[in-house]
Amino acid sequence: MRYSPLLLLPLAVSAAPQVKRGNANAAINSLFCALNKDVITLLKAQTTATSYCSSYLSIATQTLYFYHYYSHSFERPRNDNRYRDRRSIHYHLNGYGDYATLVPGTVTDAATQTLTPTSTSAVTVTETSTNTITDFTTTTTTTTTTVYATATSITASGLTYRKYTHSYNANLAASGFTPSYFKTASVDFSGSLQNLDFSTPNWPSGNSYLTIDGHYFASDQAAILMQGFFVAQATGTYTISTSPDYIDNYGYLWTGDAAYTWTDGTTAYAATRTGGGYFGGSTSITMNAGDAVPMTWLWANGGGVGRSHFVITTPSGSSVTDTTGYFAPACDSSIFT
């Protein structure tokens, strides 16, 4: 009797069938157990086996090559029982020798499951837009720096001068002397002069030669034009004066803006000692210490010996005939015409 694996498959998961007692029954039971083990092994190798089968048929992992043998028993006539034969018939599963790797554990169920929704839900998406407004204030800081003018330290190095020669005769009552003549006259020499009070040697006698700023010359027909700034050494009123008894022969003074142009009719005073008479003059200026006032002084001799008389009376009341330290030259001499 030949058993088919398809017929044995249900036996792998069911109880062993009832068989007859005796040797035949024992042979059948042995065959059943062998085939049942093979079936169990093959079930374990199938991915479609359920988890129950996997648990029930748990076998250690191994690779087997299956050859299935079963016994076929048959009976001869009674007198031939001694020739009872047990033949082994080679049977291999699915017609071939088969390899199978057995893996214990859970077997995946590949069955398809269909899920049917029971309700429909609506999803509402709310978009939130956030606008950020930044409020800012621009502050402009203005820094004001006040710069105060610092008084410039004036170097009182004297007035600049120009020396001229003329032909006016002071002994005449109407000599025709005029300062404007020297605006176009030729300059003999020039330089810097500190003291405006000077005279020929042994004035009112002696000779007419004069030494000015290192220059020695005959002064009987000489004229010297001095220009620059009068600088106050102290705060107060200064008085500048010329005596008619000591001027020999002409002394003309301009102060302030008039000093720049020094025209005939704008003098602070005009002192003379001529054939037309003796005339002195004075002018006062109120200043702060360090102030500088434009000044032009013109001295001229009309014959013989000569003298420039120039006196400064300070705020303290003292009179100074040596004017050194009271005058400073212009930075640009062209400001005086």
From TrEMBL:
PROSITE patterns: PA14
Protein keywords: Signal
Signal peptide limits: 1-15
Gene3D superfamilies, per the entry: 2.60.120.1560
Pfam families per UniProt: GLEYA (PF10528)
Domain PA14: 172-326
Full protein name: PA14 domain-containing protein
Organism of this sequence: Diplodia seriata
